[in-house]
């Protein structure tokens, strides 16, 4: 994953991945609680269906039980909430309802929670229609991770709007100047040190483009680490402290990322368009399966609250 989640517009600044992680803290907490709950009920979930009915936990953890049914209701509500993000992108009335990048953060966090929450509702057994719906939901979640990865390789402002190449170049030059000023090296020396991380491969296949993006992520980390080690080893009357070295490495990674994004922009757009085409059918399939499942469950009275 890249170091930046959304590149900021010139004069506005950047939203870094560490800031994104802080914003999404409730997501990992909820996910951790669900995994702990699943671990606590592991004995029940491992039992055959015929033996579960005699287990004291059955009234709580079965799909229509107190915990299982509650997890199902929450799964349905969150699943419906997930569809607000595409509406936010397309409906102008919602344009003032928060930054698009923030909506995407919440959308992804919910998408990671849903498969585990749905598994708790299904008591970790996936048969029949619910199995189809769960498989589609899992594919949506996994494809969402890929989509987020591709999204971070398209330079955007804090609002989520894609930046122009001129804006990206201006931001890249500003970062280069900051790295040179902090490190004490000439800008040309810094550029030469980081240039190895930027390479453009002529692959036209979608898999080749994705491999190029992944390899550039690794190259970016190595180049920033190499620059940091060089600065740490050099003899100077005023050596850089550890905090400054970390800041130089962070800014260097951002500078390289912007350069990489510029060189791979057309290819990234191509694979991102393909991802949109593939992501939607999974989401629609999951929606239909969940809707039918909920309708049947309510129709036959498989609930504890009525």
What are its keywords?
single chain; 306 residues; mainly alpha; 2 domains; two-stranded antiparallel sheet; 14 helices; 2 strands; elongated; disordered N terminus
Account of the 3D structure:
With 306 residues, the chain is mainly alpha-helical. It folds into two domains: 126 residues, no CATH class; 106 residues, no CATH class. The chain is built from 14 helices and two strands. Strands 1-2 form a two-stranded antiparallel ribbon. Strand 1 and strand 2 form a beta hairpin. The N terminus is likely disordered.
Looking across the biggest beta sheet, what order are the strands in?
Answer: 1-2
**Largest sheet: number of strands, sense, barrel closure:** 2 strands, antiparallel
Query: What is the strand content?
Result: under 5%
Low-pLDDT residue spans: 1-22
User: What kind of assembly state do the chains in view correspond to?
Assistant: single chain
Topology:
Layout: E1 4-6, E2 15-16, H1 17-23, H2 26-40, H3 42-46, H4 49-52, H5 58-61, H6 66-82, H7 84-90, H8 100-121, H9 128-151, H10 165-183, H11 187-194, H12 206-233, H13 242-263, H14 265-299
Helix pairs in contact: 2-8, 6-8, 8-9, 9-14, 10-13, 12-13, 12-14
Offer a quick outline of the entry:
The chain is built from 14 helices and two strands.
């Amino acid at each position: 994953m890249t170091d930046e989640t959304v590149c900021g517009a010139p004069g506005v600044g950047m939203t870094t991945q560490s800031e994104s992680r802080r914003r999404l803290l409730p997501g990992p907490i909820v996910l951790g609680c669900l995994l702990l709950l699943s671990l606590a009920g592991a004995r029940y979930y491992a039992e055959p269906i015929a033996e579960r009915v005699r287990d004291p936990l059955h009234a709580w953890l079965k799909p229509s039980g107190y915990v299982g049914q509650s997890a199902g209701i929450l799964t349905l509500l969150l699943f419906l909430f997930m569809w607000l993000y595409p509406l936010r992108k397309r409906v102008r009335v919602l344009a003032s309802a928060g930054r698009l990048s923030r909506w995407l953060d919440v959308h992804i966090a919910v998408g990671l929670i849903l498969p585990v929450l749905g598994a708790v509702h299904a008591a970790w057994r996936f048969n029949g229609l619910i199995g189809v719906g769960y498989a589609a939901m899992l594919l949506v979640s996994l494809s969402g991770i890929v989509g987020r990865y591709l999204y971070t390789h398209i330079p955007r402002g804090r609002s989520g709007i894609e930046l122009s190449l001129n804006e990206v170049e201006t931001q890249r030059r500003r970062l280069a100047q900051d790295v040179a000023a902090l490190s004490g090296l000439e800008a040309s020396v810094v550029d030469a040190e980081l240039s190895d991380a930027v390479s453009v491969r002529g692959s036209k296949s979608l898999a080749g483009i994705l491999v190029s993006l992944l390899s550039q992520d690794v190259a970016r980390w190595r180049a920033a680490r190499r620059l940091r080690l060089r600065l740490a080893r050099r003899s100077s009357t005023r050596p850089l402290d550890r905090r400054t070295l970390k800041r130089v490495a962070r800014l260097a990674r951002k500078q390289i990322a912007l350069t990489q994004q510029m060189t791979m922009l057309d290819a990234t757009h191509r694979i991102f368009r393909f991802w949109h085409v593939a992501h939607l059918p999974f989401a629609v399939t999951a929606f239909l399966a969940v809707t039918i499942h909920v309708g049947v469950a309510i129709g036959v009275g498989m609930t504890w609250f009525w």
